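Lab notebook: predicted structure, single chain.

Context: the supervisor wants predicted structures on file for every construct in the current expression panel, including those that have not yet been purified. This is the next one on the list. No modifications to the sequence; it matches the entry in the shared construct table.
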Amino acid sequence: MIEVQGVTKRFGDFTAISDISFQVGNGSLYGLIGYNGAGKTTLLKTITGVYKAEAGRVLLDGEDAFDNERMKQHMFYVPDDIYFQAYSNMEKMAKFYNGYYPDFSFDTFHKLAEVFGLDTKARLNGFSKGMQRQAEIVLGFATQPSFMLFDETFDGLDPAKRALIKNMIHEYMEEKNASIIVSSHDLHELEGLCDHFGLINGKKLVLDASISDLSQNRAKFRLVFAEDVSEAQIRQLGIDVKSFKKDGKMLVITVKGDEAEVAAKLQTLSPAMVESLPLSLEEVFLDEMEGTDYDFTQIFAK
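Prediction complete. Output recorded below exactly as produced.
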């Protein structure tokens, strides 16, 4: 388990993150959302011990993470900016990591390199940025850590590689019961991957909730009526309508409330069809953050 307790990090007079607290349980995937510059990387580097917090602390399975070499041997961080030793190849980096990580598996390393189609003997400085990221991910999984952190991991990757890495992250989390944090400025990249989410805004964590908590008491319906039905008519039934879209006789609405109870109320309007639809993560976040000054422009960019 990763526990972040009241962490504040400053650089001189500038406060990058302030009083942030959350936890990532064993076998849990935590999505860290925030626009570029919000403080995601600073937070991840503080968790890994690259930075020392001015206040608060980070615990790994109950032990303080900072300057704890034993616990760090079970943590792997894939940064946004990948760095490898000069003139190195994946084989040399594997030997380097094997000297630090006690659970390093050369078998896993070679199998994953083959999956990604990476030449382990080619110089890494000749790889594209996307290939270097894939190489670091392969090396990371080969260390078999209990704690994994990914910073903007899907940038620069084609859709097939993104899907492959997402599947690997999820499978590894379930197989090893690992605690994993994946940060991104794009909410769509994390949809369907994470079971918990945190949203950074104004140097603070303004939202920290599980998917089940976020989706609770929210529903979306597609309805078809023989006659025109207005939003006002639906509201008169005591339904809290959050969005209302009309296309001829068909309506798509999102509402706050128990799905079964809302469906029963809608039936009193005698629709020709009522269909429950899944809510997108974007819709849930927009509803959750309604009334705030959060700028979602980059978060929901496709």
